[in-house]
Amino acid sequence: MYKKFFKRLLDIVLAIIALPFLFLLIIVVGIVIKIDDRGPVFFRGERAGKNGAPFRMFKFRTMKVNAADIRNPDGSTYNDKNDPRLTRIGNFLRVTSIDELPQILNVLIGHMSFVGPRPDLVDQKELYAHCMEKWEKRASVRPGITGYSQALYRNNLSLQERLEKDIFYVENVKFTLDVKIIFWTALSVIRREGVYKMEKQNVYELNKLTWDTEHFGISSARLEMISQINDSVFDEILENALPYEFITIRNQNNDAHNNIQIKNKTNALLVDCNVYFRRGVDGDIEAGDGIFTRAHMPVNEKIIKIAGSSFSNTRFFKDPNIHVEKAKGVSAERVKNAFEKADKFFIVFGGVDAPAGFSLCSRSEDELVCELIAVDSEFAGQGIGKKLVNAMHPLAREMGLEKLMVPTQADNIAATRLYTSTGFLPSEFHTIYHWWKAKE
Fold this sequence. Notes:
By secondary structure, the protein is α+β, with helices and mostly antiparallel strands. It folds into 3 domains: 2-191, no CATH class; 204-266, no CATH class; 279-429, Gcn5-related N-acetyltransferase (GNAT) (Aminopeptidase), CATH 3.40.630. The protein is 38% helix and 22% strand. It has helices at 2-37, 90-95, 103-109, 132-138, 148-153, 159-171, 175-191, 210-216, 231-240, 256-265, 301-309, 324-336, 384-390, 392-399, 413-421, and strands at residues 42-48, 54-60, 113-115, 144-146, 204-208, 220-225, 246-251, 269-280, 291-294, 345-350, 355-364, 367-375, 403-409, 425-436. The strands form 3 sheets. It has a 10-stranded mixed sheet, sandwiched between helices. Strands 1-2 form a two-stranded antiparallel sheet. Strands 3-4 form a two-stranded parallel ribbon. The two termini are 35 Å apart.
């Protein structure tokens, strides 16, 4: 009810209350901007609104007239405190976030909300071509003057990282969360943190897992330990993990210190050791006979059956807390969710009506990643796995990618032999834990 009705009503009421203060601010700031360089008071940039509809977003102008459009490597807009495009008053307006306040007019008009994902430039939509469903989900709500990612991270996230945080917000919109975001935003403005994008390395990420939550029937999340984590940061993780009952932990590069932290401070169970194999795309390797590749793959019950009867050595089977039937369903459900998706590519050996094996691939930056590969047990030992792996090369070339990546478990000897025999080399090693907080 709040998301569909009261949120918009509250936006209108607050915007009307704020109008007298906004008009006074426009007079004062407008005079200062005019004195500074005599240019226009407002910048009206085109942004993507709800459902991607373009609109003109109001801001106090902080850059010089006709300033060049400069982007970061990921396509996000460039900002820096030493940016020569800034006017003399522009830096102050940005640091205090005063430049954003004219967007109250956008809220009143109906283009925006006080709280929501920050709007992208219209032309940035093409940067999400590989994950359009996520972009559309984020665009299902009005963009905000401030948002979850803006309040907690300001400008210190890449476009992809910001998308993931925004998805979390869209899935959890409620009045109390909006109040918290406004409070967090006020704190970050007062502290003047993260106004300009910093080159920093996050040490961990904790994100809700919607599918796992539905499949296992308990609130689930994934903890990525990106680098070594000290005691104070781990205490922060423990606090942030409170809403979840089941957390999958990936300790990147098998950091020994992190393994000790996990052992001493949680009841997490070591369930897997992942090895990532990589190689360059070969310009001469072609898909063999009997292979076809497609996105938007229609639902195929035979492929689902192959997935359901394979992958008996995954981490879900190694966890005594997970029932065997639930473990069997993980890979099958993963395949089901990939059908008819533009960013999921199926490589299939055999006909559509009688596939003997398949691989499920997706794009990750400049790599083609093989998420799953399985062969029907009736056709084992016939070299089908090798044909499926080799078929990744022409697909990657068609997508303009330079590298291939295939993950597997360290104890999966058959997969290791397959990948090394097709030119792959191990490049990463990660330990995986299941943390059942509900059982602590």
